[in-house]
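Instructor's aside before we start: the two examples that follow are unrelated to each other. I chose them only because their records fit on one page, so don't look for a connection. First example below.
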Amino acid sequence: MKKLLAYPLMLLILVLCSCAPADGTLRDGQYTVKVTLSGGSGRATIASPAEMTIGDGQVTAVIVWSSPYYEYMRLDGMTYDPINSNGNSTFSIPVTLDEEIAVTAETIAMSTPHEIDYTLYFDSSTLRPLDEKFLPIPIMVGSAAILLLIAWAGFLKHKRRRKANRVEEA
């Protein structure tokens, strides 16, 4: 009996482990991720969750400010210009998950342009596929494997009950 239950359980473990990359990297695609902003005067905010793209070994996020007056963002010595011309200032910048990222943004909302230092933090525990209409593959496969395991256990219980009934009849 225990051997019969061990096979589906081993299959379940194998399937679940094979769905995630072995090195812990994320698959290429588009995601949303919660981002927190600190620093500055506390007046400016950014949209969260932010859209994030992973591809070709690069992780970039789209930062949408609560103001249209940001002229550029600077990060690791590189300057990034807005990717839009209307609405609130929007930037596409490289990011690292679960680390504080120091950025400088120039705003022209005051009488003269000012550079303001901020810190961004992208929380990997909030990472979700951008298109949430479909469940991620590991969840779908894992759910199917669990249902298979439950069905297998029910089959074995039924088989054992049938065998017990035959013994009583004899």
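Example two begins here.
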Amino acid sequence: MIESIINNFTLLTAFLFFGNMLLSKLDSKGLTRKPRMDWLSGLILGTLGIMLMYYTFPVEEAVFIDFREFAIMISVYTGGWISGLITTLMIVISQFFFFQQLTNYPPWIGELAGVVAFILSCLIIRRKELSLSRWLWTLGLTLLISSVIYNLMFENQNLITLIILVICYSVVGLFVYIMLKYLSNSAESLRIMHEAANRDFLTGFYNSRAFEVILEQKIASSDRYQSPFSLMIMDIDYFKKVNDTYGHSAGDAVLSEFAEVLRSTFRQRDQISRWGGEEFVAIVESCDSAHSRVIAERVRRTVENTIFTLKDGTRLTLRYLSAVRLILILVRSNCWRSLTRGYILPKKTGGIR
């Protein structure tokens, strides 16, 4: 019995750890948002449920324990009801065709317990939202209904068996919750660190290092699908005067407000980055030459008409961006630089005042 419990713990730990590594890798590439990932999660956790059934162990002559229900609960938490349904079906089918000889009771009892765990998990557990109270409610109700089913089948089930059942499920249930919580916090910490490494702390835009990666990916995608995009390079003329006159903190305030202007001007799907200092670049999706020039002029005009307010109440106006240099990338091959056409909007007279 002890050996089987250790095997179950080892399986749960290994699947949770390596499964979290796989999901983190896929999430970094934006793949976990796709519906087929729910199917993959269900298949992986269904495999876990089948392996847990293999390591079933008896607490008395007619009563056996395994922890398949936790595979179902984890599946619903990870991938929602679709993932949970796939996991449950895999467990039910395996119970009926392959594992009924391991126990002395009809296979439909184990199948019913799995279905009950699935229904309760869907009703109580929220996808990607780990709550101790919801987890314990699901665990407790699953254990209660399973105990009722076993008592209906085996009228002579003694109190010691019930106590062992409760202790085993409670200990394993808390262990699984703690593991999931730990892995969830670790994944969130890694995500924050990744964002911090690729974001400019002042504006929140991507930094130059991240921009280079994004641009390479965009060029490859555009080359593959023959889809043009525009690259806008924005530079504030005479910005050094702000720092020299009002101080670097004032310059930071202007750049921060300038970033908000860009956010409101570009679409959400466009990629904006701070290249360095007062230089910014933006990748504009699916944008032809005529439309690009319109957007570039709108950016220049919006900045020109915006009043930037410093912390001490001083109001500044940036009369122009030196020329919103607009580059329309028409990618037909990997040698994209030789096929780049540049457009420069005319400067307007003025400066910072």
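Residues 159-198 form the longest helix (40 residues).
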